[in-house]
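Input record (one chain):
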Amino acid sequence: MIIPRSLGYKSAETFTEDFYDNNGYGQSTTKDGVMLMVCMEERDYSLDSAGAAQDWFDYSTRLKIEDDFLPDLSNGNYLSAFLTYASDCERVLKSVDRREVLYLSDLGGFLTAQQQTIVTRTLESNSHVGSLCDIVVLTVMDLSGQSASDYVTTLYSNGAYRHGVSDDKIVMVVDRAASKCYCVTGGSASRYFADADLSNMESAAAAKLSGGDPVGAFTGFAETAYSRIYSYYESQYQNNYGYAQRTPQLLSGPRAFISLGFGLIVGLIVVSSLKNQLKSVRGQVAATDYMRKDSMRLTDNQDLYLYSNVAKTPRATENRTGSGGGHSGGSHFSSGGISHSGHGGKF
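The corresponding structure, as predicted from the sequence alone:
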């Protein structure tokens, strides 16, 4: 938790993310953590989660925590508010599955430490789609006759890693000794990828690896897998709600001219009919032209201000149990390259 003197020119969310990134917070390669920022001078707060903590402290969980500490924070009971926040975070962390989500294991030694960070973050960002189907890369020096599927099953059977609520994942296994790439799906991910999709991703990655571009091979795999998963969910939505897009069919030349001529004829008939119903009336400039002569006489006139009636409508804000309106941002990468989700507002 941080209590800065001022936010400068930054929003509450950006200030919190930058402070988190620049001061080395977060656990594991995905920089998992949660941070509360409260600026007393500007009466702003922001509750931010990063890395895998975005799954533990999701949007609804953050709102519940805020509803607990915001009343005390707004009323100046700061110690009570901060203790409530800490207690709620502890309760969440005790109840969630905090096993590491494995996005990259480079036992085959294809990547430098800096490249591993780039690939890990690309895999992580592209895994947040649909029902959190994780996109994973595993490289080994030699599978030693073991199939890629068996290797993946053995790796995850020890219970050290978790992957989504349904174990949905697509894993690329790279055997350095055999110079081969294999794609293995788990959970519901087999529905997202046809055999041809898996074969194409394997070939594309192998070509880039042979060309000395491991980063391009693995980030390209992540982006292609994301595209396939997104397309699957989009097609499911269209099938369920009947919003399938159709390519418009253009009219041929003769049909176009016939349709245009018919439209002009109908338009002329309608306009002529409306025009015939009109009666020309000459506009009058002065109101006296509408008065019967000598029917009214003014002996005196003056302008007298009586009163004004002003109606004000409050600007709409988000309704919350605590005080103050809030605003939120979805999962995104900050300027420091770390995946964040945040929510904040006034107190």
